[in-house]
Amino acid sequence: MKMIGLIGGMSFESSAVYYRLVNEAVRERLGGLASAEVLMHSVNFEEIVTLQKAGRWDDAARRLGDVAAGLERGGAACVLICTNTMHLVADSVAKRIGVPLIHIIDETAEALKAAGARRPLLLATRYTMEHGFYADRMRARGVEVMVPDAEDRTATHDIIFSELCAGHVLDTSRKRMISIIEKAREAGADSVILGCTEICLLLDPAHLPLPGFDSTAIHARAAVDFALGHRPVIEKRTVAA
After folding, report:
1. What is the CATH T-level fold of the domain 105-214, as seen in this structure?
2. Which residues are catalytic?
3. Cα–Cα distance, 127 to 152 (Å, whole number)
C-alpha cells in the first residue's frame, strides 16, 4: 500500500471527512482491521483565507507547495489538496513535487462522464465558481459546467464560509441550496457537483433534485485507488528547483 499525502485544514471540517472516507475505503477493500497509510499536514485556514481575500494566489501556491514537498519528503507517494478552491494553484503545487498530485477536477470530470452527465451545476465557493480555472479544466474534458446566478453564488459562498467551515449545518441553508439546484434543473442542468469539500456536510448527493456528484468522496476514492494500485501510475513530474 502506498502512502497518501493530504494537504488539509481548508477547512478542517472537510479534512476530517477525507480521513474517514479514505480509511473506510481501505477497510472495505482489504477487510479486517486494515486502514490507510496517510500523512496529513493540516494548515491554518485563517492564513489561507487571508491570502484568498487579498488575491495573493502566488503566495498561497508557495505555501501549499512547501507543504506538498514536505509530504513527499515524509514518504507520501501521492498528494491531494483537500479543497476545491485551492486547486486554483494546483499546477504550481504539482511542479514542486516528484510524485503525482491527484487533481479533484480531473477525477470529478471522469466521474461525470462515466455517468453520462455533461451539463452539471457547480456549487462551490465564489473563487471556484467565478475564477474560471474549474470551468476551463472541465471544458477541456468535455464537461460544460453551469453556475448559479450572482445572488445564489453569494448565498452559496456565504453558507460555505460562514456556516459549514465553522461547523454549522442548518436546515434553512439546505433548503436554500436545494432551491438553487431546482432552478438549475429548470435551466437545463443534468446533474450537480458538490464542488466544495464541505458541502457534503449539508447535502446528500443521493437525495437531490438532480444526480449528485460529491467531489470529496470522488477525490478520496481516487486516492485509495492509487494507493492500492488500482489505477495507472501517473508519470512523475520533474521537481522544480
Report:
1. Rossmann fold (3.40.50)
2. 83, 196
3. 14
